[in-house]
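SAMPLE LOG
Freezer: B-3
Tube label: C17
Construct: single chain, 210 aa
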Amino acid sequence: MNSKPLEFWFEFASSYSYLSVMRIEALARQAGVKLAWRPFLLGPVFLSLGWNDSPFNIYPPKGRYMWRDLARLSARYGLPFKVPSRFPRNGLLAARVALTGASQPWIGDFTRATMQANFAEDRDIADPAVIRSILETLQLPADVILTEAESPENKLALRSQTEQAAERGLFGAPSFIAPDGELFWGNDRLEDALAWAASPPVRTDSAAGR
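STRUCTURE (predicted):
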């Protein structure tokens, strides 16, 4: 297994992040690739690009296509799916919790359960009671985790991580950054990102200088 991880940048409100979150851990294990979970917030990134909402809401035809595409892909992957009654939902608390657990064994289970709550069960992941319920169902110490998630230090850490996402050129989610810095964007690039991280091709001078 490669000693350096593939960075997985995801947003709990992101529809295509749902597909990657539900698949990435098993696929990474098969590919022999370590993962670094990087929750962040798309809102500030979109604002830096001049958008005050999801582009899927700003451009209705694109939004209609996205929901149909998500239904097709969910069926292909064998994933449950239901169009949320509100989109995008506020994923701030979920991201704060995920950040506290980013290096913990439960990060994958929590992230999948929260994504499924949003995109398959139409539950409001902005509601602290929903996040608490997910933690308790996973038999995790909800009080301890939520207290840490809402600490000033963790809030600042998530803000810094979101700023880092923009500084590193991310413009959407899911995104994947290979150990050599190669950036991949979108659920449809998940397998490519894992293959690159497992065995990065030798770059030519022109490719390295992009």
